[in-house]
Fructose-1,6-bisphosphatase class 1
Amino acid sequence: MKIKKYTPDKSGLAYSVGVTLDRFIKIKQEDFTFASGELSQLLRDIALASKIVNRETNRAGLANIGGAFGQTNVQGEEQQKLDVIANIRFMRALSKGGEVCAIVSEEDDEVIDLQNKSGKYVVAIDPLDGSSNIDVNISIGTIFSIYRRITPVGSPIQIEDVMQPGANQVASGYVLYGSSTMLVYTTGHGVNGFTYEPSLGEFFLSHPNMRAPQNGKIYSVNEGTYNHFDDGLKSYIQECKKREYSARYIGSLVADFHRNLLKGGIYIYPATAKAPNGKLRLLYEANALAFIAEQAGAKATDGKQRILEIMPSSLHQRTPLYIGSVKMVDEVAQYQKNNIAIVSQ
């Protein structure tokens, strides 16, 4: 019997599809502080649920699952049908996986205790961010944040397991459902992005070691509320216009953040007279994206302090958010610190 040594194909007839998410997680297992396999499986559970939500999103217009559900969530926002569906899908995946003891979701008033005393992790999640954009075919997303519980495994969950600052996150990420579906995550060792290949049903590494430009020429803010901005922020926006920066605001946090992460820019949702505490939620939106931003060399603040240092005081706590390229975040902070008035006034 003859034995032939394997050599990689160089004919070019079959292109390489790359590294799958599962394989990448296994390769990076040693990066996890508590490398016992649970966190790896938890990330796989989230990836599986995101594939299902991707399928539901893609067929929303054909299956009568677009539009409003007819109820409001704890935020006072009208729930969309896909909000409810996505919440169910992620709840099922996280509860069946066995790694999670509690879940905080945008769609639920209270902490969901999974009655899994052996679970080591708490997940905070926005199952479907920007869902009001579904009916007009604009990109939407999922945002998730993972914490290691503080109380001993085997005991009932306590409030301190949930109310942790973002600096305690062991992993966070988002899924962007757009022209292609991407999963981007960090475990505190850089940021990597994976693109979904639907014909194979797999996420493949497409954006290794993602790094945000230190500066940019894109600003993302809802200028419809401009009159409610403080003078410093108004002046900064005017300066962006003078420099002919591009104004890009989709109204879908994940999509706006993802674009600026890749191209350089700043996303701003400030405190205003109408929303003095801002609008975005700390536990399952701002913290997750702030962790990713910092791991990619970007920055995230509430206008006064680092997002990841804020100690939450309530489950659905809101916060202002300035996130993106370091130089842009620092510059707008300087404008607001000095409360620089618009020169023309």
